[in-house]
Amino acid sequence: MRTFHIQPTGLDMVEAINKKIDNLNKPRHSLGFLEDLARQVCLIQQTLSPTLSHPCHLLMGGDHGIERHGVSKSPREVTWQQMINFSKGGGGVNMFCRQHHFDLKIIDMGVDHDLSAYPTILNRKIAFGTSDFMEGPAMTAQQFDQAIETGAEMVDRCHEEGCNVICIGEMGIANTSPSSIWLSILCHLPIETCIGAGSGLDEEGIRHKCEILKTVRNRYMDTYGDNDKEMLLRYFGGFEMVGAIGAMLRAAERRMIVLVDGFIMAACMLGAAALYPAVLDYAVFGHCGNEPGHRLLLQHLGARPILQLSLCLGEGTGALCAYPILESAVRMINEMNNFQNANITKYF
Protein backbone atom coordinates (compact mmCIF):
# COMPACT_ATOMS: atom_id res chain seq x y z
CA MET A 1 0.00 0.00 0.00
CA ARG A 2 1.20 3.51 -0.78
CA THR A 3 2.41 5.74 2.02
CA PHE A 4 0.31 8.76 2.95
CA HIS A 5 1.83 11.79 4.63
CA ILE A 6 -0.95 13.15 6.83
CA GLN A 7 -0.11 16.02 9.12
CA PRO A 8 -2.16 16.47 12.30
CA THR A 9 -3.97 19.79 12.14
CA GLY A 10 -2.27 20.78 15.38
CA LEU A 11 -3.35 23.39 17.90
CA ASP A 12 -1.06 26.29 17.02
CA MET A 13 -3.93 28.43 15.75
CA VAL A 14 -6.49 27.62 18.42
CA GLU A 15 -5.89 30.78 20.47
CA ALA A 16 -6.29 33.02 17.43
CA ILE A 17 -9.38 31.13 16.24
CA ASN A 18 -11.00 31.34 19.67
CA LYS A 19 -10.27 35.04 19.85
CA LYS A 20 -11.99 35.64 16.52
CA ILE A 21 -15.01 33.52 17.47
CA ASP A 22 -15.33 35.15 20.91
CA ASN A 23 -15.19 38.63 19.37
CA LEU A 24 -18.16 37.97 17.09
CA ASN A 25 -21.17 39.97 18.25
CA LYS A 26 -22.85 37.23 20.26
CA PRO A 27 -22.63 35.83 23.78
CA ARG A 28 -19.63 33.58 24.28
CA HIS A 29 -20.28 29.98 23.15
CA SER A 30 -23.85 30.90 22.14
CA LEU A 31 -23.53 29.20 18.74
CA GLY A 32 -22.43 25.97 20.36
CA PHE A 33 -21.45 23.20 17.97
CA LEU A 34 -21.22 25.64 15.05
CA GLU A 35 -18.26 27.18 16.82
CA ASP A 36 -16.61 23.77 17.17
CA LEU A 37 -17.11 23.06 13.48
CA ALA A 38 -15.74 26.45 12.47
CA ARG A 39 -12.70 25.88 14.67
CA GLN A 40 -12.07 22.48 13.06
CA VAL A 41 -12.33 23.87 9.52
CA CYS A 42 -9.96 26.71 10.39
CA LEU A 43 -7.43 24.19 11.72
CA ILE A 44 -7.78 21.99 8.65
CA GLN A 45 -7.24 24.90 6.28
CA GLN A 46 -4.81 26.78 8.57
CA THR A 47 -6.64 30.05 8.14
CA LEU A 48 -8.97 32.37 10.08
CA SER A 49 -11.07 32.82 6.93
CA PRO A 50 -12.01 29.29 5.78
CA THR A 51 -13.88 28.48 2.59
CA LEU A 52 -15.92 25.63 1.16
CA SER A 53 -15.36 25.25 -2.55
CA HIS A 54 -16.70 22.90 -5.23
CA PRO A 55 -17.96 20.17 -2.85
CA CYS A 56 -17.76 16.71 -4.41
CA HIS A 57 -19.50 13.47 -3.56
CA LEU A 58 -17.93 10.12 -4.43
CA LEU A 59 -20.50 7.31 -4.66
CA MET A 60 -18.64 3.99 -4.76
CA GLY A 61 -20.34 0.69 -5.57
CA GLY A 62 -19.22 -2.88 -4.96
CA ASP A 63 -20.58 -6.34 -4.17
CA HIS A 64 -19.62 -8.74 -1.38
CA GLY A 65 -19.01 -12.46 -1.41
CA ILE A 66 -20.49 -12.78 2.09
CA GLU A 67 -23.90 -11.77 0.69
CA ARG A 68 -24.31 -15.36 -0.55
CA HIS A 69 -24.80 -16.44 3.08
CA GLY A 70 -28.05 -14.56 3.57
CA VAL A 71 -26.72 -11.81 5.84
CA SER A 72 -28.76 -9.10 4.10
CA LYS A 73 -32.46 -8.59 3.52
CA SER A 74 -31.77 -6.98 0.14
CA PRO A 75 -30.77 -9.27 -2.74
CA ARG A 76 -27.44 -8.88 -4.50
CA GLU A 77 -28.87 -7.44 -7.70
CA VAL A 78 -30.03 -4.32 -5.87
CA THR A 79 -26.44 -3.05 -5.99
CA TRP A 80 -26.28 -2.84 -9.77
CA GLN A 81 -29.91 -1.78 -10.10
CA GLN A 82 -29.33 1.15 -7.78
CA MET A 83 -26.11 2.10 -9.54
CA ILE A 84 -28.07 2.40 -12.77
CA ASN A 85 -30.74 4.37 -10.93
CA PHE A 86 -28.08 6.76 -9.63
CA SER A 87 -26.74 7.21 -13.16
CA LYS A 88 -30.20 8.41 -14.19
CA GLY A 89 -30.52 10.84 -11.29
CA GLY A 90 -33.24 8.95 -9.42
CA GLY A 91 -31.67 8.14 -6.05
CA GLY A 92 -31.71 9.85 -2.69
CA VAL A 93 -28.05 10.71 -3.21
CA ASN A 94 -28.90 12.46 -6.48
CA MET A 95 -31.61 14.55 -4.85
CA PHE A 96 -29.40 15.77 -2.03
CA CYS A 97 -26.44 16.42 -4.33
CA ARG A 98 -28.69 18.59 -6.47
CA GLN A 99 -30.08 20.38 -3.43
CA HIS A 100 -26.69 21.17 -1.92
CA HIS A 101 -24.80 21.65 -5.20
CA PHE A 102 -22.41 18.71 -4.90
CA ASP A 103 -20.60 17.37 -7.94
CA LEU A 104 -21.59 13.67 -7.90
CA LYS A 105 -19.19 11.07 -9.25
CA ILE A 106 -20.54 7.50 -9.48
CA ILE A 107 -17.79 4.88 -9.44
CA ASP A 108 -18.01 1.15 -10.09
CA MET A 109 -15.38 -0.29 -7.79
CA GLY A 110 -16.52 -3.90 -8.01
CA VAL A 111 -20.19 -4.35 -8.83
CA ASP A 112 -21.23 -7.86 -9.88
CA HIS A 113 -22.70 -6.65 -13.16
CA ASP A 114 -21.53 -5.14 -16.44
CA LEU A 115 -22.24 -1.41 -16.19
CA SER A 116 -20.27 -0.39 -19.26
CA ALA A 117 -23.44 0.74 -21.06
CA TYR A 118 -23.77 3.63 -18.59
CA PRO A 119 -21.09 6.22 -19.37
CA THR A 120 -21.86 8.38 -16.34
CA ILE A 121 -20.69 5.50 -14.12
CA LEU A 122 -16.90 5.66 -13.93
CA ASN A 123 -15.47 2.19 -14.60
CA ARG A 124 -12.86 1.33 -11.99
CA LYS A 125 -14.03 -2.25 -11.55
CA ILE A 126 -11.47 -4.37 -9.72
CA ALA A 127 -13.51 -7.58 -9.93
CA PHE A 128 -17.14 -8.66 -10.06
CA GLY A 129 -17.49 -8.47 -6.29
CA THR A 130 -15.16 -9.58 -3.52
CA SER A 131 -14.46 -13.18 -2.57
CA ASP A 132 -16.40 -14.86 0.23
CA PHE A 133 -14.57 -14.13 3.48
CA MET A 134 -16.04 -17.28 4.97
CA GLU A 135 -13.50 -19.04 2.75
CA GLY A 136 -10.56 -16.64 2.93
CA PRO A 137 -9.63 -12.97 2.37
CA ALA A 138 -12.21 -10.90 0.52
CA MET A 139 -9.49 -9.47 -1.72
CA THR A 140 -5.86 -9.98 -2.59
CA ALA A 141 -3.12 -7.59 -1.55
CA GLN A 142 -2.96 -6.34 -5.15
CA GLN A 143 -6.71 -5.70 -5.21
CA PHE A 144 -6.48 -3.89 -1.89
CA ASP A 145 -3.76 -1.60 -3.25
CA GLN A 146 -5.79 -0.99 -6.40
CA ALA A 147 -8.84 0.03 -4.37
CA ILE A 148 -6.76 2.41 -2.22
CA GLU A 149 -5.20 3.94 -5.33
CA THR A 150 -8.58 4.39 -7.01
CA GLY A 151 -9.97 6.23 -4.00
CA ALA A 152 -6.91 8.49 -3.95
CA GLU A 153 -7.20 9.05 -7.70
CA MET A 154 -10.81 10.19 -7.35
CA VAL A 155 -9.86 12.70 -4.67
CA ASP A 156 -7.03 14.05 -6.82
CA ARG A 157 -9.50 14.49 -9.66
CA CYS A 158 -11.86 16.45 -7.40
CA HIS A 159 -9.02 18.53 -5.95
CA GLU A 160 -7.89 19.51 -9.44
CA GLU A 161 -11.42 20.77 -10.08
CA GLY A 162 -11.16 23.10 -7.08
CA CYS A 163 -12.73 20.89 -4.40
CA ASN A 164 -11.73 21.28 -0.76
CA VAL A 165 -14.57 19.32 0.88
CA ILE A 166 -15.15 15.69 -0.05
CA CYS A 167 -18.12 13.51 0.84
CA ILE A 168 -18.14 9.75 0.28
CA GLY A 169 -21.03 7.31 -0.02
CA GLU A 170 -21.42 3.63 -0.80
CA MET A 171 -23.69 1.17 -2.54
CA GLY A 172 -22.98 -2.47 -1.68
CA ILE A 173 -25.48 -5.03 -0.47
CA ALA A 174 -24.23 -6.77 2.72
CA ASN A 175 -21.59 -4.16 3.56
CA THR A 176 -22.87 -3.80 7.12
CA SER A 177 -21.30 -7.24 7.72
CA PRO A 178 -17.65 -6.24 7.17
CA SER A 179 -18.37 -2.96 8.97
CA SER A 180 -19.55 -4.89 12.04
CA ILE A 181 -16.48 -7.11 12.04
CA TRP A 182 -14.10 -4.17 11.66
CA LEU A 183 -15.83 -2.44 14.55
CA SER A 184 -15.74 -5.56 16.73
CA ILE A 185 -12.04 -6.22 16.21
CA LEU A 186 -10.70 -2.67 16.10
CA CYS A 187 -12.71 -1.54 19.13
CA HIS A 188 -12.50 -4.84 21.04
CA LEU A 189 -16.26 -5.24 21.25
CA PRO A 190 -18.38 -8.42 21.26
CA ILE A 191 -19.61 -9.01 17.73
CA GLU A 192 -23.19 -9.32 19.00
CA THR A 193 -23.21 -5.66 20.03
CA CYS A 194 -22.00 -4.53 16.60
CA ILE A 195 -24.69 -6.16 14.46
CA GLY A 196 -28.03 -4.66 13.45
CA ALA A 197 -30.83 -5.15 10.96
CA GLY A 198 -28.98 -3.66 8.02
CA SER A 199 -31.49 -3.22 5.20
CA GLY A 200 -34.32 -4.78 7.21
CA LEU A 201 -33.55 -8.17 8.71
CA ASP A 202 -36.04 -9.55 11.24
CA GLU A 203 -34.98 -11.09 14.55
CA GLU A 204 -34.27 -14.47 13.02
CA GLY A 205 -32.28 -12.83 10.23
CA ILE A 206 -30.19 -10.90 12.73
CA ARG A 207 -29.57 -14.10 14.71
CA HIS A 208 -28.39 -15.86 11.53
CA LYS A 209 -26.18 -12.90 10.57
CA CYS A 210 -24.67 -12.87 14.03
CA GLU A 211 -23.91 -16.58 13.90
CA ILE A 212 -22.17 -16.28 10.53
CA LEU A 213 -20.11 -13.24 11.50
CA LYS A 214 -19.18 -14.56 14.92
CA THR A 215 -17.85 -17.77 13.36
CA VAL A 216 -15.67 -16.00 10.81
CA ARG A 217 -14.52 -13.32 13.26
CA ASN A 218 -13.33 -15.90 15.77
CA ARG A 219 -11.61 -17.92 13.06
CA TYR A 220 -9.80 -14.81 11.82
CA MET A 221 -8.68 -13.81 15.31
CA ASP A 222 -7.41 -17.32 16.04
CA THR A 223 -5.36 -17.23 12.82
CA TYR A 224 -4.18 -13.62 12.52
CA GLY A 225 -4.93 -11.74 15.74
CA ASP A 226 -5.53 -7.99 15.61
CA ASN A 227 -2.08 -6.54 14.96
CA ASP A 228 -2.04 -6.40 11.15
CA LYS A 229 -4.53 -3.65 10.36
CA GLU A 230 -4.04 -3.82 6.60
CA MET A 231 -4.72 -7.55 6.62
CA LEU A 232 -7.89 -7.00 8.64
CA LEU A 233 -9.18 -4.41 6.19
CA ARG A 234 -8.55 -6.51 3.10
CA TYR A 235 -9.76 -9.76 4.66
CA PHE A 236 -13.27 -8.43 5.24
CA GLY A 237 -13.64 -5.18 3.30
CA GLY A 238 -15.47 -4.44 0.09
CA PHE A 239 -13.85 -2.73 -2.87
CA GLU A 240 -16.10 0.29 -2.32
CA MET A 241 -15.11 0.40 1.35
CA VAL A 242 -11.36 0.19 0.78
CA GLY A 243 -11.75 2.72 -2.02
CA ALA A 244 -13.39 5.03 0.50
CA ILE A 245 -10.46 4.54 2.88
CA GLY A 246 -8.04 5.52 0.12
CA ALA A 247 -10.14 8.60 -0.61
CA MET A 248 -10.25 9.60 3.06
CA LEU A 249 -6.51 9.25 3.47
CA ARG A 250 -5.69 11.18 0.31
CA ALA A 251 -8.17 13.93 1.19
CA ALA A 252 -6.56 14.32 4.62
CA GLU A 253 -3.13 14.35 2.99
CA ARG A 254 -4.36 17.23 0.83
CA ARG A 255 -5.84 18.99 3.89
CA MET A 256 -9.40 18.63 2.65
CA ILE A 257 -12.50 18.30 4.82
CA VAL A 258 -13.89 14.75 4.84
CA LEU A 259 -17.64 14.50 5.43
CA VAL A 260 -18.37 11.09 6.97
CA ASP A 261 -21.76 9.45 6.40
CA GLY A 262 -23.38 6.55 8.28
CA PHE A 263 -22.29 3.20 9.70
CA ILE A 264 -20.41 1.97 6.63
CA MET A 265 -18.46 5.17 6.06
CA ALA A 266 -17.81 5.60 9.78
CA ALA A 267 -16.38 2.07 9.77
CA CYS A 268 -14.18 3.08 6.84
CA MET A 269 -13.00 6.12 8.78
CA LEU A 270 -12.26 3.79 11.70
CA GLY A 271 -10.20 1.64 9.33
CA ALA A 272 -8.43 4.68 7.91
CA ALA A 273 -7.60 5.86 11.43
CA ALA A 274 -6.22 2.42 12.31
CA LEU A 275 -3.64 3.02 9.57
CA TYR A 276 -3.14 6.78 10.03
CA PRO A 277 -4.67 8.20 13.25
CA ALA A 278 -4.23 11.82 12.12
CA VAL A 279 -6.93 11.33 9.48
CA LEU A 280 -9.51 11.91 12.23
CA ASP A 281 -8.51 15.58 12.43
CA TYR A 282 -10.07 16.02 8.98
CA ALA A 283 -13.28 14.09 9.62
CA VAL A 284 -16.64 15.79 10.11
CA PHE A 285 -19.25 13.22 11.10
CA GLY A 286 -22.54 13.97 9.41
CA HIS A 287 -25.03 11.96 11.43
CA CYS A 288 -25.75 9.06 13.75
CA GLY A 289 -28.00 6.41 12.25
CA ASN A 290 -30.08 3.55 13.58
CA GLU A 291 -27.50 0.75 13.41
CA PRO A 292 -26.39 -0.12 16.96
CA GLY A 293 -22.82 -0.40 15.74
CA HIS A 294 -22.85 3.15 14.42
CA ARG A 295 -23.53 4.61 17.86
CA LEU A 296 -20.82 2.45 19.40
CA LEU A 297 -18.34 3.46 16.72
CA LEU A 298 -18.96 7.17 17.17
CA GLN A 299 -18.62 6.78 20.94
CA HIS A 300 -15.32 4.94 20.50
CA LEU A 301 -13.96 7.73 18.30
CA GLY A 302 -15.28 10.46 20.57
CA ALA A 303 -17.05 11.86 17.53
CA ARG A 304 -20.02 14.22 17.75
CA PRO A 305 -22.35 13.83 14.76
CA ILE A 306 -24.08 16.90 13.34
CA LEU A 307 -27.49 15.25 12.85
CA GLN A 308 -29.54 12.50 14.46
CA LEU A 309 -32.48 11.87 12.13
CA SER A 310 -32.80 8.05 12.32
CA LEU A 311 -31.31 7.78 8.83
CA CYS A 312 -30.08 4.42 7.54
CA LEU A 313 -30.14 4.77 3.75
CA GLY A 314 -26.42 5.01 3.11
CA GLU A 315 -25.23 6.40 -0.23
CA GLY A 316 -23.78 9.36 1.70
CA THR A 317 -27.20 10.91 2.18
CA GLY A 318 -26.79 11.69 5.88
CA ALA A 319 -23.51 13.51 5.33
CA LEU A 320 -25.04 15.49 2.47
CA CYS A 321 -27.96 16.51 4.69
CA ALA A 322 -25.48 17.74 7.29
CA TYR A 323 -23.56 19.92 4.84
CA PRO A 324 -25.66 23.09 5.32
CA ILE A 325 -24.78 23.04 9.02
CA LEU A 326 -21.09 22.96 8.13
CA GLU A 327 -21.72 25.80 5.69
CA SER A 328 -23.44 27.77 8.46
CA ALA A 329 -20.38 27.34 10.67
CA VAL A 330 -18.11 28.72 7.96
CA ARG A 331 -20.47 31.62 7.28
CA MET A 332 -20.57 32.40 11.00
CA ILE A 333 -16.83 32.90 11.33
CA ASN A 334 -16.56 34.81 8.05
CA GLU A 335 -19.70 36.95 7.94
CA MET A 336 -20.76 37.85 11.48
CA ASN A 337 -19.72 41.29 12.60
CA ASN A 338 -17.59 41.72 15.72
CA PHE A 339 -18.31 43.83 18.80
CA GLN A 340 -15.97 46.65 17.84
CA ASN A 341 -17.20 47.13 14.27
CA ALA A 342 -20.83 46.82 15.31
CA ASN A 343 -20.38 49.33 18.15
CA ILE A 344 -21.75 46.86 20.68
CA THR A 345 -20.42 46.69 24.20
CA LYS A 346 -18.45 43.52 24.80
CA TYR A 347 -19.73 42.48 28.19
CA PHE A 348 -17.56 39.47 28.95
Q: What does the average pLDDT come to?
A: 96
Main pleated-sheet profile: 6 strands, parallel
Query: Helices and strands: which structural class?
Result: alpha/beta
- Work out the number of β strands: 6
Uncertain residue segments: none
Helix residue percentage: 40-55%
Strand content: 5-15%
Terminal Cα separation, in Å?
52 Å
User: Which sequence of strands runs across the widest sheet?
Assistant: 3-2-1-4-5-6
Rg computed from alpha carbons, rounded to a whole number of angstroms: 20 Å
* Coarse shape: globular
Describe this structure in words.
With 348 residues, this protein is of the alpha/beta class. Helix content is 47%, strand content 9%. It is built from 13 helices and six strands. The protein has helices at 14-22, 32-45, 77-87, 92-100, 141-160, 176-186, 203-224, 229-236, 239-253, 263-275, 292-301, 317-335, 339-342, and strands at 56-62, 103-110, 121-123, 165-171, 257-260, 283-285. Strands 3-2-1-4-5-6 form a six-stranded parallel β-sheet, with helices on both faces. Helix 10 (263-275) links the parallel strand 5 (257-260) and strand 6 (283-285). Helix 5 (141-160) crosses helix 9 (239-253), helix 6 packs antiparallel against helix 8 (229-236) and helix 6 (176-186) crosses helix 10 (263-275). The termini are far apart.
